Amino acid sequence: MNSLLFLHDADVLPGPVGALRLLADDLDVDVPRHPGFGTPHDATTAHWDSVADLAQHYLTTTTDTPRHLAGAGFGGWIALEMAVRAPHRFTSLVLVSPYGVKLSGPTEPDFADILLLDPTEIIELGWADPTASHDLRMPGHPADLPDSDHERAFADRAALARYAWKPFLHDPRLRRWLHLITIPTLVIAGSHNRLVPPRHSAALADLLPTARYLELPHTGHYPYLERPDEFHRLVRSFLRGEAP
Fold first, then answer.
1. 143: which strand partners?
2. φ, ψ (nearest 5 deg) of residue 100
3. Residue 219 in contact with residue 193, Cβ under 8 Å?
4. What 3-state DSSP class applies to 195?
5. Cα dist. 48→170, 180, 226 in Å?
6. 17-54: buried (b, 16+ CB within 10 Å) or exposed (e) per residue?
7. Which of 198, 220, 236 lies closest to 70, judged by CA?
8. In whole angstroms, how far apart are CA 55 and each of 32, 52, 84?
9. Which SUPFAM superfamilies does the UniProt entry name for this protein (predicted)?
10. Is the Cβ–Cβ distance between 185 and 95 less than 8 Å?
11. What's the rounded Cα separation, in Å, for the pair 215 and 231?
């Protein structure tokens, strides 16, 4: 199975969290932080203002050797932008409730407004069991954040707003190029995800020529955190070319 590039969502702690630790038993799992989210590139990329900038960054700074690509939420949007630009660079694509593609009308929201919701609301909408939430960092959450992590959480939100505020959480040009993603693709959603409704992920999968859609019951926006064993089993099978 070789190597997996996993692009993280907003508000998720750095590193191979949840099921990513399990996948690392079989794969070389790379989970880079996005420029603006606490990296050596933050100062030189402070003028970047689109997810296309992030996609181009990863395409020009990561290995040319074909490998698996995955992304969750905000990271799923980046993965989609990369896959339409250079599908030959990747052997497969896993998307976990990605933002990035607007499927409803101009006045109908596709996604919850994660930039305006407070941490309690994001957890209530993003977890099937909010009391089990973990591995998230937002301004004011957890309550006992040290000052340095609190500042980091605010800086992460500022970076997210710069990339995703306008147009809100989508690229209006992305949908027209989705047909170029012909690599094996798995779209995963949680049945209780109220940040990105599972119907959006299912409709997105229908627009991807080779995509399969899987919905995990009693799971929210972060299945790799909330159901790590099940997520690991499904993704591992998919990457091996087996039916998940």
1. none
2. 115, -30
3. yes
4. coil
5. 16, 25, 32
6. bbbbebbeeebebbbbbbbbbeeebeeebeebeebbbb
7. 236
8. 13, 5, 10
9. alpha/beta-Hydrolases (SSF53474)
10. yes
11. 11
Buried b (16+ CB within 10 A) or exposed e, 200-222: bbebbbeebeebebbbbeebbbb
| Residue whose structure tokens are 């992920």 | 201
Within the chain, residue ranges assigned H as helices are: 19-23, 51-61, 74-85, 119-126, 147-164, 198-207, 223-226, 228-239
Is residue 196 within 8 A of residue 99, CB to CB? The reply is yes
With contact defined as beta carbons under 8 Å apart, do 224 and 214 qualify? Answer: no
Q: Mind listing the pLDDT tens digit of every residue in the chain (244 residues)?
A: 589 999 999 999 999 999 999 999 999 999 999 999 999 999 999 999 999 999 999 999 987 788 999 999 999 999 999 999 999 999 999 999 999 999 999 889 999 999 999 999 999 999 999 999 999 999 999 988 899 999 999 999 999 999 999 999 999 999 999 999 999 999 999 999 999 999 999 999 999 999 999 999 999 999 999 999 999 999 999 999 987 6
Pairwise CA distance, residues 206 & 80, whole Å: 14
Q: How far apart are CA 94 and CA 105, in angstroms?
A: 26
